Amino acid sequence: SQELEQSPQSLIVQEGKNLTINCTSSKTLYGLYWYKQKYGEGLIFLMMLQKGGEEKSHEKITAKLDEKKQQSSLHITASQPSHAGIYLCGADTGGTSYGKLTFGQGTILTVHP
Amino acid sequence: GAGVSQTPSNKVTEKGKYVELRCDPISGHTALYWYRQSLGQGPEFLIYFQGTGAADDSGLPNDRFFAVRPEGSVSTLKIQRTERGDSAVYLCASRDDPSNTEAFFGQGTRLTVV
Fold it and tell me: Do the beta carbons of residue A25 and residue A91 sit within 8 Å?
């Protein structure tokens, strides 16, 4: 079965600093999703990557998928307190178009003002 | 509605009781997913509906768990003889097509079994 490992498990940064969260898969990724979650709330979709080498950006967040499609990174530039939360990567299990996702364990981000 | 709605938002029940959790997906979305999220973990897949039928129920942990979607819109997750280990946040997501990129998640139901 597909497994996703996120690192680090938690991250504390000062406002304005850049940071990177990694997501590594045990198998080739057919689709890699990044979500953000705040305590007691559902998941907010950030970005989806499908092609090897693909990179997408939205505001100050950039996500990349490596050429081998086994690792993705999420980079936040000039972090703000509003970026705080739990970041989850989710992988499409592939083989079908179910859209069923396997998730990593999450990275807890704290941004100090 | 504008988004995926889950009710109740919180549920406390006694061990051994029966509970029902409801998911109201975005109107017109044919694909619906249930996930379970334990504290400090990512969501784990439970079941996937395409229309009214359960296309994949491989994530249901045992036969105490059952889900229905009789009219292809609202879905109910049913848990019989609840156990303390069932305590978790139950998340529902919907998509307008299973191959589409974005799944929209509800805010979840926090189930606590005491």
Answer: yes
Per-residue pLDDT tens digits for B41-95:
999 999 999 999 988 899 999 999 999 999 999 999 999 999 999 999 999 999 8
CB-based contact, A34 to chain B, within 8 Å:
no
On whether any CB of chain B is under 8 Å from the CB of A63, the answer is no
Three-state DSSP at B80 gives coil
Judge contact between A70 and A81, C-beta under 8 A. no
Q: Which chain A residues are closer than 8 Å to B107 by Cβ?
A: 40-42
